[in-house]
């Protein structure tokens, strides 16, 4: 009996060591891989967008500017998509496979390339389910909520970002929260000239 217990203890110890020392492996569901592939096929292309919904009455409205998305960097587990609003080249969407889903971050830079700490940067969310090959949603994560509170925009803690991709039709970017909705659809049937390099990045 003691020998059996000793063998079991040794096996458990080896299993623990193996679990701790093993390198993490990035995984995602099949539909999340398909979502990435649906976007990645447009790598190197840019598309113009149109505001189809916006009930926000703040200082900046997307409807007053030309909107262009550029699928600029495409890696196996990471996509970088600058979102240009008129002459403002500060925004880049970053999608990353995390091992438990997909993360969306909004990288905001100043014209000199510095991170826009005061205005807010690297906020975003993470998928909480598999979603679909054509659509994924990203409720605000804890770090983003804490940053919203720090920047005195507590209404943003309820943010959820959504992305839709229908190949050969359109790509959609949508923000929702109680009482707030904004959506831009980009025409994938008509590529446009590439926009400038986003602020803080290099060719």
Account of the 3D structure:
With 203 residues, the chain is of the alpha+beta class. It has a single domain, classed as Beta Barrel (Lipocalin). The protein is built from three helices and eleven strands. Strands 1, 2, 3, 4, 5, 6, 7, 8, 9, 10 and 11 form an eleven-stranded antiparallel beta sheet that branches. A hairpin with a 2-residue loop joins β4 and β5. This is Secreted protein. Keywords: Signal. It comes from Aliidiomarina maris.
From the structure above, extract its key features.
single chain; about 200 residues; alpha+beta; Lipocalin; eleven-stranded antiparallel β-sheet; globular; disordered N terminus
Summarize the model shown:
The chain is of the alpha+beta class and 203 residues long. It is built from 3 helices and 11 strands, in the order ααββββββββαβββ. The protein has a single domain (28-192), classed as Beta Barrel (Lipocalin).
Number of domains: 1
Quick one: biggest sheet?
A: 11 strands, antiparallel
Q: Which stretches are low in confidence, meaning pLDDT under 50 for 5 or more residues running?
A: 1-26
Tally of helical runs = 3
Proportion in helices: 10-25%
Tell me the CATH topology. Answer: Lipocalin
The secondary structure category is alpha+beta
Rounded to the nearest angstrom, the radius of gyration is 21 Å
CATH class: Mainly Beta
Cα separation of the termini: 67 Å
Q: What share of the residues does DSSP label as strand, in percent?
A: 35-45%
Shape: globular
Q: What is the β-strand count?
A: 11
């Amino acid at each position: 009996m003691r020998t059996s217990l000793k063998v079991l203890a040794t096996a458990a110890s080896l299993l623990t060591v193996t679990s701790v020392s093993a390198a993490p492996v990035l995984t995602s569901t099949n539909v999340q891989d398909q979502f990435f592939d649906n976007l990645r096929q447009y790598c190197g292309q840019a598309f113009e967008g149109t505001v189809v919904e916006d009930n926000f009455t703040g200082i900046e409205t997307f409807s007053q500017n030309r909107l262009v998305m550029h699928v600029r960097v495409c890696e196996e587990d990471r996509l970088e998509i600058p979102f240009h609003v008129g002459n403002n080249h500060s925004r880049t969407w970053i999608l990353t496979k995390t091992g438990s889903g997909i993360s969306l971050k909004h990288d905001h830079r100043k014209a000199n390339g510095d991170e826009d700490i005061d205005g807010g940067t690297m906020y975003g969310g993470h998928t909480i389910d598999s979603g679909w090959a054509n659509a994924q949603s990203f409720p605000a994560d804890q770090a983003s909520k804490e940053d919203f509170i720090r920047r005195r925009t507590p209404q943003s803690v309820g943010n959820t970002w959504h992305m839709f991709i229908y190949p050969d039709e359109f790509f959609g970017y949508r923000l929702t929260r109680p009482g707030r909705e904004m959506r831009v659809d980009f025409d994938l049937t008509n590529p446009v000239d590439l926009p400038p390099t986003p602020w803080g990045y290099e060719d």
